[in-house]
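User: Sequence for Precorrin-6A synthase [deacetylating] below. Tokens please.
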Amino acid sequence: MIDLVLVGIGTGNPEHLTLQAVRELNAADLILIPRKGEDKADLAELRRSICAEVLTNPAVRIVEFDMPRRDVADPDYRRGVAHWHQAIAHAWNEAIHANLPQGGTVALLVWGDPALYDSTLRIAAQLSPAPMTIRSIPGIMSLNMLAAAHAIPLNDIGAPFLVTTGRQLRDHGWPPGTDTVVVMLDGDCSFQHIPADAISIYWGAYVGMAEQILLSGPLTQIGPRIIATRAEARARHGWIMDIYLLRRHVAR
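Assistant: Structure tokens for Precorrin-6A synthase [deacetylating]:
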């Protein structure tokens, strides 16, 4: 029997792991850390640093494995992602069964929370052979961290807010029915494609980490600064994780 535990680690700050997450990591027989290439070597190092900070059980083994890369040249986005997920599931299978041939508990550290705009649970569902149990340990979501970093509420009084992706904002514009939009997975600064008047933006990169960068203000003024800052930070670190909230100001 393999027990797969997906542990949400928030934005990578060991202080933000829940007590449950720390307990599960220390109860695992094996922790798998993915390597995503030299340009994202810091991501593996962050996972190693978290383990060094919270592990007290010397019996837990840590094993690294190479993660497949997505074919970004495929014009069909969903097909490309599906093939990529299949390749990741295969890599997980190989790493798990090579290192736990007699069964046991294996943990994977997942950025943020496994339930929000993360495909780890979908990939885990493709693993084989059975029997295998899959458990998800919640982590602090990036939208919670963004709101805390800027000291703002996510919603106006009695009003809804919507969480979406940069691709959706770019292709379909401002979502109807809300004046507050939280945008994730946006590598193209898609706020450039919507009318900027009467909109405030609260942007954060590496939120909750030592590298944290925060910018906020009217989108017409702050948008260009975010684009430049984001490009510089990505070039410096080789990767970037960012998120932002857009709030439309409507006369009542």
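The domain at 142-248 is CATH 3.30.950.10 (Methyltransferase, Cobalt-precorrin-4 Transmethylase; Domain 2).
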